[in-house]
Specification:
Blueprint: H1 3-11, E1 38-41, E2 58-61, H2 65-70, E3 74-76, E4 78-82, E5 88-92, E6 101-110, E7 118-124, E8 134-139, E9 142-143, E10 156-157, E11 168-174, H3 177-180, E12 185-193, H4 203-206, E13 217-223, H5 251-269, H6 277-286, H7 300-317, H8 320-323, H9 333-342, E14 373-380, E15 383-387, E16 397-402, E17 406-412, E18 416-417, E19 422-434, E20 439-446, E21 452-460, E22 464-476, E23 483-491, E24 494-504, H10 516-532, H11 539-558, H12 567-577, H13 623-635, H14 642-654, E25 659-663, E26 669-673, H15 702-707, H16 710-721, H17 724-734, H18 739-745, H19 748-757, E27 774-778, E28 783-788, E29 791-796, E30 808-814, E31 820-826, E32 828-839, E33 875-879, E34 902-907, E35 910-915, E36 922-925, E37 932-934, E38 940-941, E39 946-949, E40 954-959
Parallel strand pairs: 11-31
Antiparallel strand pairs: 1-32, 2-13, 3-6, 4-5, 6-12, 7-11, 7-13, 8-9, 8-10, 8-12, 14-17, 15-16, 16-24, 17-23, 18-23, 19-22, 19-24, 20-21, 20-23, 25-26, 27-28, 28-29, 29-30, 30-31, 32-33, 32-34, 34-35, 35-40, 36-39, 37-38, 37-40
Helix pairs in contact: 6-7, 6-9, 6-18, 7-10, 9-11, 10-11, 11-12, 11-13, 13-14
């Protein structure tokens, strides 16, 4: 097959994916010299010295007496069991007194005196449940790696879903070479430990007690090569036959819809403020949906206004509402979205005083029940009530009916402060059969003690029956008066309605009421100004923040504020956050960007993958926020932006490579999100995910239904066909019921209706069995995904290198028979050194610091005796950052310090060579790897070839 034809077949691999730029385009040779400034750093393992099939240095068969004796095994709190495929194994049990540490296994095993030694554990993939806890490796009494997001992770982290049902899986960790240098054996130990709560604020909450027996441990191996290949008689299991999930079915959509419709009715009819912005967003959206009781409901605008008033007062009392609430980095921007969603319906209420304002009339249109008013009968008898069938504006008025005689009405429930000067008081009055001097507005003044000053100041409406009439009284505040009450009264038989009262203070009054337009603008402006000066770096945070900035500014525009930037500038922050333009970081108060990562750092790679600092699995799943970006900018009250929409679709499609075939928790066919090679992931396997996974703010069908891209629609339809969309929706429905989850599910019925009726492009997820082979590479993230027949390889070559170049790569390999391997391995790198180094500290929990949290460097120390890190003292060289990047001290996290210019990683039958530069050619050799095939071009490569790699390209070779 010619190279041209092969490339054409690659472009068909995922129906339209090539348009997004994610399929690697190889071929051609550039002429350029390698930089003389680059440092070559060989990984400490044998990264290509012999073919796949190399056996272990040593094998410890747990539960086998002879093997255990030969290795001097000692154990505590451990039982021998018969496990998967009737194989002997051990479990580690919980301590008698509840605690974080459980049973232990200790043995002496062979190691390599030169180069690398790896330790691999064999585990049964059908076991699931976070209560299985974790397994931690120790060598020579020192802990190997870190508990949370370290470059070398625990030996096992159990999660709710089984990792590899029906089969064994293997996880591999490297040992520090200083620990094995010159030795032929090494003391290893495995300890059971409890779960970890990654976001806990205290050590007590962070470390969970062991809850029961650990995951069953079958074998430990030591080996020299990064890839572990078990012996022929070492059982691995058989990939179960995948079948379609039969239930739940589409009835879950009806169940969800019933819940959100009930909540919409409840929110529309509530008479107290709703201070949760998620629910205000929920109600505002529900008011535009014909299926809900909130649709065009005249009660919704006043309820939204009442609630935004409450949010305003809450913010004034506690500014952390803007910085530390469940809105995360959006601040109060969601309030802007609510204003946009309600549109003109809120306009009549914007220039009224905020409910609870100490000055001015509260609830002058009786929109908020009878808040601010009290009824009174001065003589005779009659009824005073709120009427929602007659009103001048809004949806209510005050109604007074007197059958025969009497004086009945309402007065303000509190005395309102007044200045000296001339005020104008007004009311709109409608009458039916009212006598002369019957319906009136009455103004009464009081001194500081509440004593009446003077007498009534009444202004009457015309007698008889008439429509709305405006009556006003212009009055000078008496010299001894400091307060005023307003009343609306009817004297004599008939009916009168009162609405839209006003109280206009003289210019310069110290008692001007807080008006909604100004109050809401203040909180939106404060939010915008704070967050533009605290624009976060991680992509997911930057996107959420940019949405808040954009919505806050659009809300300011909706309120007519002179402080509003306008569409172009507000949208620029969104463009920065999604990588359409460089991210310039937090701004100074005068608007000058600080550029902490220079002037050319993009939050998203050219291939469409977010940077957090490298590839992130769950945290890189941004579809829910991309949906809100689309919604915020081009959706609710927005304008079309084809450039932004196409880019958001590109980002969503780039993630589709990172779904691999698997079985769900019940053994049915599924596609799972790749998390094993994720920088910010600590749960394996990843969630079931097709177009979009189950999130607080997103569900399986949401983005596809919103943007209506043909490929995304087809991926969503694939999840429906596999029965997984309904399970995902059920999982979403099963989350804690909250404003956030109800908002997420509000559109479910409409989303499902669209996906069910749409045809899409017919594309299937790229890693779906039977789909064409391909190679995906993202040089900016050091990331590779390969499909070769039914074999899948993911590799993160730039792997958790926060401080400096650590020479480590992370791989996840799913063999043709379904056997899974995951490993952290040494590799060869080249980089331009900046002359500094960082020495790994003696930390065992985190490998990083968190400046904005009250948590010690390296995280909380674990319970029990002090532990020491096996990698402590490892010296990491720092790579050179671009010239315009301000220097960060060694030991401060940086997206540049650990990024190499060139990576050469060998894992089993694969050799990956990646050039991450934009201006230099790198050469590499296949010597020691063997004859191979270039999986991009199909070309055959000899066993001693010298290859040139153009800037920004990757080659993946597979040994023949």
């Amino acid at each position: 097959m010619s190279e041209t034809i092969h490339r054409r077949s690659l472009l068909k691999a995922a129906a339209g994916a090539a348009a997004t730029g994610w399929l690697w385009q190889g071929g051609g040779h550039a002429r350029a010299a390698e930089s003389a400034d680059e440092t070559v750093s060989a990984g400490t393992g044998a990264t290509g010295s012999r073919p796949v099939g190399t056996g272990p240095l040593d094998t410890l068969v747990l539960g086998d007496g002879a093997s255990e004796r030969a290795h001097g095994l000692t154990s505590t709190l451990s039982d021998v069991v018969t496990g998967g495929l009737d194989q002997a194994a051990r479990v580690l049990n919980a301590p008698e007194t509840p605690g974080f540490w459980g049973g232990t296994l200790a043995a002496t095993m062979a190691c390599s005196p030169k180069g690398a030694t790896y330790v691999t554990v064999k585990l049964w993939g059908s076991e699931g449940g976070a209560d299985l806890g974790r397994l931690q490796l120790f060598a020579e009494g020192k802990q190997v790696g870190h508990y949370h997001l370290g470059a070398v992770d625990p030996l096992d982290i159990a999660s709710d879903d089984p990792r590899s049902p029906g089969r064994f899986f293997f996880h591999t960790l490297p040992l520090p070479t200083d620990l094995t240098k010159g030795k032929k054996s090494i003391a290893l130990e495995v300890r059971a430990m409890g779960r970890i709560a990654g976001y806990a604020a205290t050590a007590e909450a962070y470390y969970k007690n062991v809850e029961g027996p650990s995951r069953t441990i079958y074998r430990l191996y030591t080996h020299h090569e990064p890839h572990f290949d078990p012996a022929d008689d070492d059982l691995t299991g058989t990939l179960p036959t995948a079948t379609t999930r039969p239930s739940p079915g589409s009835e879950i959509v009806d169940t969800i819809n019933a819940r959100v419709l009930a909540r919409a009715a409840s929110e529309a009819s509530r008479t107290s403020p709703q201070l949760d912005l998620w629910y205000l967003d929920f109600l505002a959206r529900a008011s535009t949906m014909p299926s809900t009781a909130a649709y065009r409901n005249i009660a919704v605008p006043p309820q939204i206004a009442r609630s935004l008033d409450g949010v305003y007062w809450r913010y004034l009392a506690d500014s952390t509402v803007m910085t530390g609430s469940s809105q995360q980095w959006m601040g109060l921007g969601r309030a802007g979205l609510v204003l946009l969603a309600l549109g003109d319906a809120l306009e009549p209420l914007l220039d009224e005083p905020v409910l609870g304002s100490p000055y001015g009339l509260s609830n002058p249109g009786f929109e908020f029940g009878m808040t601010g008013w009290k009824s009174a009968t001065w003589s005779g008898s009659g009824t005073a009530s709120r009427d929602t069938s007659v009103y001048r504006t809004g949806h209510a008025s005050a109604k007074v009916t007197i059958p025969v005689s009497g004086t009945v009405g309402y007065s303000t429930s509190a005395k309102l402060p007044v200045d000296q000067g001339t005020y104008t008081y007004g009311a709109w009055i409608k009458t039916d059969g009212v006598g002369t001097s019957g319906a009136c507005l009455d103004v009464l003044f009081h001194d500081a003690n509440g004593t009446l000053v003077g007498t009534d100041n009444k202004v009457h409406a015309a007698a008889g029956t008439h429509d709305w009439e405006h009556v006003t009284a212009t009055l000078v505040t008496p010299a001894t008066a400091t307060q005023v009450t307003l009343g609306v009264r009817l004297s004599g038989a008939g009916t009168a309605w009162f609405d839209d009262l006003t109280m206009t203070a003289p210019s310069g009054s110290a008692y001007a009421p807080v008006v909604r337009r100004a109050a809401w603008a203040k909180m939106l402006l404060d939010s915008r100004e704070y967050w533009r000066q605290n624009f976060p770096q991680y992509t997911n945070q930057a996107i959420i923040c940019a949405i808040g900035l954009c919505l806050a500014d659009r809300g300011l525009s909706r309120l007519g504020s002179d402080a509003a930037w306008g569409e172009k500038k507000a949208r620029d922050y969104v463009y920065q956050s999604v990588g359409l333009v460089p991210w310039l970081g937090p701004e100074k108060a005068d608007g000058t960007p600080t550029k902490p990562l220079g002037g050319s750092y993009h939050q998203v790679t050219k291939k469409g993958i977010s940077k957090e600092l490298g590839y992130a699995g769950s945290y890189g799943e941004l579809q829910e926020w991309l949906s809100l970006v689309y919604d915020a900018v081009t959706g609710i009250g927005g304008v079309e932006d084809g450039t932004l929409r196409d880019h958001l679709v590109k980002m969503a499609k780039a993630r589709m490579v990172f779904r691999h075939p698997a079985l769900d928790r019940d053994g049915y066919r599924a596609m799972r999100l790749e998390t094993v090679v994720g920088w910010r992931d600590s749960e394996y396997p990843g969630k079931v995910a097709y177009d979009e996974d189950t999130k607080w703010d997103g569900h399986a069908l949401k983005m596809a239904a919103l943007v209506k891209d043909p490929d995304l629609t087809s991926y969503a339809r694939q999840s429906v066909a596999d029965g997984q969309a309904f399970q995902s929706l059920k999982d979403s429905h099963g989350m804690t019921v909250s404003a956030r989850t109800n908002l997420n599910l509000l559109s479910t019925a409409d989303d499902y209706a669209y996906i069910s009726g749409a045809t899409g492009s017919g594309a299937r997820l790229p890693m779906t069995p039977g789909s064409p082979d391909f190679v995906f590479s993202d040089e900016e993230n050091g990331l590779v995904a390969v499909k070769h027949g039914e074999e899948i390889l993911y590799a993160s070559l730039y792997w958790r290198a926060r401080w400096g170049v650590n020479r480590l790569a992370r791989v996840h390999h799913i063999g043709a028979g379904g056997v899974e391997r995951s490993a952290t391995v040494w590799q060869d790198v080249r980089f331009v050194a900046d002359g500094r180094t960082f020495t790994e500290p003696d930390w065992v929990n985190w490998e990083f610091t968190v400046d904005d949290l009250d948590i010690p460097d390296g995280g909380f120390a674990p319970p029990g005796d002090a532990l020491h890190q096996a990698f402590a003292g490892q010296v990491l060289p720092l790579a050179e950052a671009p010239a315009d990047v301000p220097e960060r001290a060694a030991g401060v996290e940086s997206p540049y310090a650990g990024r190499a210019s060139f990576y050469r990683c060998v894992y089993g039958p694969y050799l990956i060579a990646m050039n991450t530069t934009v201006d230099r050619v790198h050469t590499f050799t296949t010597k020691g790897f063997g004859a191979s095939t270039n999986l991009v071009t199909g070309a055959r490569v000899s066993e001693n070839a010298q290859l040139r790699l153009r800037p920004g390209t990757t080659v993946v070779l597979r040994r023949r």
